[in-house]
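Progress report, Aim 2. The chain analyzed during this reporting quarter is listed below.
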Amino acid sequence: MWRSALIALALVLTTGPVRAQEQMGDPDFRPVVAHPAYAGQGPEVVLDEAHGSVQTADGRYAPFVALMQADGYRVRSGHRRFDAGGLDGVQLLVISNAASPVEDAEPVSAFTPIEIAVLEAWVRGGGSLLLAADHAPHGTAAEALATAFGVQMGKGYAFRLVEGRVTTQLTYSGVTLGDHPILQGRSAGERVRDVTAFTGQSLIGPPGSTTLLRMEAGDREAVDRDTLVRLRARLDDGEPEAAVLSELSVPVGGRAQGLAFTYGAGRVVVLGEAGMLTAQMIRFPEESGRPPLRFGMSVPGNQDQQFALNILHWLSGALD
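Predicted structure tokens for the chain:
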């Protein structure tokens, strides 16, 4: 039942009248951390809010902030550019779905070349970076920054076919999970065996990186939402699957939606999907009569919360 609900949710995110709906952090999410990594004053985590993201500490990423605080981290929002003191005293930086400047008609980098150089040097010198950028246009906004660390972004909408139907909900378990301390955790009880991503893009890691979430052989990626909508509609109309997929998407099997690697003296985790780090809901207009749809950590049947905690533990050194 829960799997069918999530597939339906993924279709809503890519084909329904999403712009008329309200997407928000799930106000009912209450994280419980059985064994916090830090009992006292843990490391400070800065959530970047200087580059146009709607994933803010008091908005859609409020559940992630609550989870970090429950684990003992100190969290604050970052409102300064990286070349203007935004990294002063920062130990662990989270960037999620940075957006292109609103004055630009076409999507461009959310970060200036100087900012990228400053951030690259900061990580190389020992900083820890968690970079999440999901479906278009977020990959374009983060592409230049990712490239500085050797990461290639697909920049589209990753999807797979489940029983002939398009879904952007990608579940990882078994051989599609990599071998890394992030997935092993601090104990057997923290081992991650199931992660679900919700509407993201594909990634290619640099040499020496570890793929945390490996995409399946049949996974594909459409360049944008409108293309994915057309693709789904044509398949639903009975057009030949192979021809439609070839025309409107590219294969991304073997690519990643999660990467981890060291960089100089620092550490980097890159995710091709941002919703798995939080708990969000889509609220439909009251006249629709539809109950809210939830996605992320509050959805039963995945270990996204433990995955998020383990990422933080590795980046902060709690897994060493």
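The chain has one domain: 2-316. The two ends are 39 Å apart (CA to CA). These observations will guide the mutagenesis work planned for the next reporting period.
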